[in-house]
Amino acid sequence: MRIFPCATFKTLRPETTATGDSHRDSKMVRFAISLAGFFATLLTVVFMASLGVPTANAWGCKGHQTVALIAEKHLTPEARELVLKLLSENPVDPQLKRYCGSAVSDVMGDASTWADDVRGDRKNGPWHYIDIPRGAPRESLEGFCGKEGCVIRAIAEQVAILKDQSANGAKRAEAVRYIIHFVGDLHQPLHSTTNADEGGNCVPLKYFRREPHERGHGFSPNLHSVWDTAILERDSEGADSGEYAEMLEGTFAGSIEGWQKAGVHVDDWVWESHEYADSTVYAGLAPRIAIEPNVPVHSCTDDNNIGQRLLHQHIVAGEAYQEEAAPVVERRVAQAGIRLAMILNDAAKTTAP
């Protein structure tokens, strides 16, 4: 279960880049242009939520699309040709219900959310995350990867398919779509962490004015849903995925080369997310949530009814929490885009459509 609440927004904090460009002069213009698009997105999400429609995961539509659009700018010519040829020659089934619709016309942006559209039918939800318990010491990630798989194993398997020139073109195109999505997933801190709480899905909290309440078999808002989309939506002040990608490219212009030089180390990226979960996701809540025993949890009634126990703690995430969390969200989305490009560029070195 990886769901997200209705979108919210705030003024994007201008952050100075290495060149000194803080985007301050154009902030109000961007806001005015983007406001209409934001409310259209908001109404869509509210409507779908009211129908009980399962929603997208990790970074939501905008976040995953932003990751893909950043990555696309950093592809080598060979990788761009490989990816775009596979995707265009092997399009998504037009009968597939797409939660994110056609909000973005870019082929990689559109591909970025496909994995969430098919996860129910293909029953591969565990491919989207890896549950490392809070407080776990750093060690091999294979021990945290269950028999149904996990995000690191899924990425390795899909990269192998993409590199296999003898594989069916449709399978290689699906591999591209999975890789685009899963690299985004693993950069969301709660896709690498659990506290016997379903990756934060069983942590009801008050987010600004939104009071927590039971909905279906869970709670809304909850910690996972806030990190999936609410923080990002509030931070992006209504910008669409293309504009948000440009904002993040400018904000982290001075960091991109360092991320690229560090190379492809998927396990390290997962542990980064896990550390952010400890230092920011859980640490910033009021009151603090204790580390739970590492027990199997399949619903919010497990672990001595963890959902109800936490509901009665009246956990709050407001303005102070948003201000601490938003820079982490920005960094993780930007890193995911750059690192996704690195994986695709490497795959293209020894393969061809």
Q: Can you give keywords for this protein?
A:
two-stranded parallel sheet; two-stranded antiparallel sheet; P1 Nuclease; 353 residues; disordered N terminus; 52% helix; globular; mainly alpha; 13 helices
Task: Provide an overview of this structure.
- There is one protein chain.
- This protein has helices at about 25-50, 60-75, 75-90, 105-110, 115-120, 150-165, 170-185, 225-235, 240-250, 255-260, 265-280, 300-310, 320-350, and strands at about 205, 215, 220, 315.
- The protein has one domain (about 25-350): P1 Nuclease.
- The chain is built from 13 helices and four strands.
- By secondary structure, it is mainly alpha-helical.
- The longest helix has about 30 residues, at about 320-350.
- The strands form two sheets. It has a two-stranded parallel sheet. A two-stranded antiparallel ribbon has the order 2-3.
Give the name of the CATH architecture. Answer: Orthogonal Bundle
Bin the strand percentage.
Answer: under 5%
CATH topology: P1 Nuclease
> What spatial order of strands do you see in the largest sheet?
1-4
Q: Gap between N and C termini, in Å?
A: 35 Å
Mean pLDDT figure: 87
User: What is the CATH level 1 assignment?
Assistant: Mainly Alpha
Q: What would you give as the CATH superfamily?
A: P1 Nuclease
Contiguous low-pLDDT stretches (5 residues minimum) are 1-56
Provide the succession of SSEs.
HHHHHHHEEEHHHHHEH
Rg over C-alpha atoms, rounded to the nearest angstrom? 19 Å
Gross morphology: globular
| Main sheet summary | 2 strands, parallel
Could you say how many structural domains there are in total? 1
Number of strands: 4
Alpha plus pi helix count:
13
Query: What proportion of the residues is helical, as a percent range?
Result: 40-55%
